[in-house]
Each structure stands twice: as C-alpha cells, then as structure tokens.
Specification:
By secondary structure, the protein is mostly helical. About 85% of the residues lie in helices and about 0% in strands. The longest helix is centred in the N-terminal third of the chain and has 41 residues.
Length: about 110
C-alpha cells in the first residue's frame, strides 16, 4: 500500500469518526431541548437558563413532596375538611403540622 492510500484511508476513518460524533452531538442537543421544554412546561417558567430551570424543578419537586406528606397526614388523622387542610398546609414543618392534626382529630 502506498502512502497516498494510507492518507486516503486515514482521512476516511477520521471523516467517519467526525460524522459519528456529529450525530451524537445532534442527539444530545435534541435531548437537551426536550428536557428544557419539559422543565418549562412543568414549572411554567419561560427561561432557557439551566440554573433557573433546575431551581424551578427542585421547588416543584419539594412542593409535590410536601403535598404528598400533607395528604398522608390528613388520611392518617382522618382530616377531610378543606379549611383544616389549608390551615395545616400553612404550617412550616411536619412536626407542627402533626401537632395540629392531632388536635384537630381530637387526640
């Protein structure tokens, strides 16, 4: 094999590698765009700033966790009244919510 053929083969190999890397990069860009769109939809934010979107998603996750915890607490103590649930949700932590739930349930 002469030097020209080695150069042609090497150039073809690098071209294939570049094409594969470009394809992966496009897939990653599409994935990132989909994630940003999902974050915007979930949080209602209109920014493309990743830090803001992450903070918004974290706040949403915390709110959902708190809602789930409050629902569980209300079921545990048999609290069904909307006003009582609102009152419980206004309290800052689980301990104070539990203390009020016990009082509301008559325990």
């Amino acid at each position: 094999m002469d030097n020209c053929q080695v150069l042609v083969d090497t150039a073809a190999e690098y071209q294939d590698r570049y094409a594969a890397q470009a394809h992966v990069a496009k897939q990653q860009e599409a994935t990132l765009a989909a994630l940003i769109a999902a974050c915007k939809e979930a949080t209602g934010l209109e920014t493309d700033n990743p830090e803001s979107l992450v903070a918004g998603v974290q706040a949403l996750a915390n709110a959902l966790r708190d809602d789930n915890r409050l629902d569980k607490l209300c079921r545990e103590y048999g609290i069904r009244d909307e006003a009582d649930m609102l009152l419980l949700s206004a309290l800052p932590d689980l301990a104070s919510q539990r203390a009020l739930a016990e009082r509301l349930a008559g325990r």
